[in-house]
Design a protein that fits this description.
mainly beta, 7-stranded mixed sheet, 4-stranded antiparallel sheet
Length: about 130
């Protein structure tokens, strides 16, 4: 059972930066059971939106609208993923979720593709 724990959310002024972390446990890499980890966000009254995803080989996919400001990466131990968020805007305010899918065959930004979810961490950007 894959478990995910997010951290790093908080309040920041517009133009600031935050780095979110997602600690992954309960998974052991095998070639036939690939893992992808994605970041999603959901603002009040809006649908959940895919932000970025990384697979266990380190390949990434970012939402076009967030490229250049948001970057997904992982630690050397591969059991922690990061979402670096720069030049934050008030419209980035949302609950941010880490999600995982096993087995993974595509780096999808669709939330329906993922079968494990963390509890989320709140990001609030003030103007």
């Amino acid at each position: 059972q894959v478990q995910l724990v997010e951290s790093g959310g908080g309040s920041v002024q517009a133009g600031g930066s935050l780095r979110l972390s997602c600690a992954v446990s309960g998974y052991t890499y095998t070639h036939s059971l690939r893992l992808c980890v994605g970041w999603f966000r959901q603002a009040p009254g809006k649908e959940r939106e895919g932000v970025a995803v990384i697979d266990d080989l380190g390949y990434t996919n970012h939402a076009d609208s967030l490229k250049g400001r948001f970057t997904i990466s992982r630690g050397n131990a591969k059991d922690i993923q990061y979402l670096e968020m720069n030049n934050l805007k008030p419209e980035d305010t949302a609950m941010y979720y880490c999600a995982a899918v096993v087995p993974c065959s595509i780096r999808s930004l669709s939330s329906s593709y993922y079968n494990y979810w963390g509890q989320g961490t709140q990001v609030t950007v003030s103007s």
